[in-house]
């Protein structure tokens, strides 16, 4: 069972991001403050949930959360500031979008920078330990998946609808055949043999 609260503060926000390891598209972050009576039968780390279950739980989270925020860090910015900074920046922006200021922040992973004066705790595999981080991971993942399905229509040959921009064999083969798009992250190693390629 996932725990509801780490800090003892009522207004504890959980934050997480999706898309760090992708070759294309944005890093998407979310922050969620849940009420103390929140429960859902299958809310868990979004990676453990099927796409169908994530889609089902997202409106429930949005309806029952005290507050939630979602932010997009576009690929150009990811290239400019690097993917770790993009994750932290995205989480800060998502927290900023909360209509209530949290008293404490719990963060998935082990890297974060102070957000204003609010105390925080980084938690490795936090999305499989705390409900608010799991909820943030579901929102980040579903908002990002929706966006990747949308740009898939523009460039169907990369099959982003299925691979979501992750470096699958199929995605890399499409880059090899069709080159990179403006949605691809230029600082990422798009192909293993890229060093030899004149991109």
From TrEMBL:
MF (Gene Ontology): RNA-DNA hybrid ribonuclease activity
SUPFAM superfamilies: Ribonuclease H-like (SSF53098)
Cofactor binding description: Manganese or magnesium. Binds 1 divalent metal ion per monomer in the absence of substrate. May bind a second metal ion after substrate binding.
InterPro entries, A to Z: RNase_HII (IPR022898), RNase_HII/HIII (IPR001352), RNase_HII/HIII_dom (IPR024567), RNaseH-like_sf (IPR012337), RNaseH_sf (IPR036397)
Matches recorded under CDD domains: RNase_HII_bacteria_HII_like
Pfam (any one): RNase_HII
Binding site for a divalent metal cation: 16-17, 108
Keywords: Cytoplasm, Endonuclease, Hydrolase, Manganese, Metal-binding, Nuclease
EC category name: hydrolase
UniProt catalytic activity: Endonucleolytic cleavage to 5'-phosphomonoester
Coiled-coil parts of chain: none
Domain annotation RNase H type-2: ranges: 10-199
Family of the protein in this entry: Belongs to the RNase HII family.
Function: Endonuclease that specifically degrades the RNA of RNA-DNA hybrids.
Protein name per the record: Ribonuclease HII
Organism in which the protein naturally occurs: Polaribacter marinaquae
Taxonomic placement: Bacteria, Pseudomonadati, Bacteroidota, Flavobacteriia, Flavobacteriales
